[in-house]
Amino acid sequence: MTSAWTRAAVAAIREDGARLPVLTAATIGPVVAGLDLWDMWQIEDADGATLMRDGRAWWFFLAAPREGDPELRHDRARIHLLSHGADGWRDHGPALPDGATPGSREWSGSARLAADGQTLTLYFTAAGDRHGGPRFAQRLFEMHGRLTVSADGARCEGWGAPVEMIVADGHWYARADQDAPVGGGILGFRDPGYVRDPADGNEYVLFTGSAGQDHAAGVIGAARRDGDGWTLLPPLIAAPAVNSELERAHIIVRDGRYYLFWSTQGRRFAEGLVAPTGLYGMVADRLLGPYRPVNGTGLVAGNPPSAPFQAYCWWVTAEGTVASFIDYPGTDDPHDASPHARRARFGGVAAPFFRLRFAGDAVTFG
Question: Which family would the database say this protein is a member of (predicted)?
Fold first, then answer.
C-alpha cells in the first residue's frame, strides 16, 4: 500500500525547471496589522469546493504576534479565521477560545462545512501541552462548531470538546514527543488533511509523519473514519533516504485521478540530493494508491534559485488555486542570520495566488 518517493525521481529534477517567479516588493506588505501569518487552509463546503459566503472565500491561517524572532512564532501559534474578497484579506480573529484545546498552541490542519451550511469540523494539531510536557509533542484532534457570517461580522462558535482522532503506533509512525529539536528538525505527527473519496464516500485524513523504524524518513500517513472513530492505516507515501519532512499533505480529485500534494524544504533532502523548497506531488488512480510522482520527479513548483526561501506551505484547493505565505525573500539563508536580521526579512503574509494546470500525470502552473 505504501508508495516510495525515490532518489532517482528527485535526482531527475532540473536546476532550472518548474520555478516560481521572484516576488516583487509590492507583494510583501502587512495583511493583518501586528500578526505574522503562515500555514493556511480553506474551509471546504460539503462538496469539497472552497466555501464562498458574501462574495468572500473563507480560510484558516496560523497566526502569532509580529514580534521577536519569527522562527519562534510556532511557540505562539493560534488558528485565525480569515476571508478573502475583492478588497483582499480580512482577519476575523482566533477560531478557538483561549484554552479550548489540550495543546500549548495550535498547529495546522483542515476544515469542512457540513451540508447544513453551519456545522463546521476543524481538524488540527495540538502542539505541546498547556499543562507542561514535551515542547514538540504533536497530537491530532477534531472539533465541531458553527461558522456564522452576518452583517455583524464572522466568527466560529459553539465548539464542542476536542476529540483525539488517532495516536502514533511506534511501528508505522514514530511518536512525536520531543522536547527539543534534533539535528535542526523535529519528528512529525501533525497536519491532518481531510478528504472524502468520491468513489465510495469513505472519509480519510492524511498527516505528516516520521517513519516508525527510520526516523530520518518522512512519510505521509493516513487514517480512515470507521463509525465514530478512525482507523490508522499504513503510510501512503514514504521517502527513505530521500526526505525527512513531507508537510501539509492533502488530496484533490480531478478527472478521476487523485493528486496528493505536500510541501518540503530544500534542507530536508537527504545527503547527495539537491532540490528546491517547493510544492511536490504524486498521483494515483485510487485514493489508497499506488502513487507515482507527478511530472516524473514529484516537483510541481519550486522557489527560484535567486530567492530560495521566498515562500512556503503551498496549499491546493479543489479549484486548482494555490495559496502560500511569504517566508524570507532574498538569497541569504535565514537560518544563519541573527533573530533581528530574520525579523527584518520575514514576510509573514499571504503570497499571491497562482493556478495549476492538470494533464494526466503532468501538473504545471501558470
Answer: Belongs to the glycosyl hydrolase 68 family.
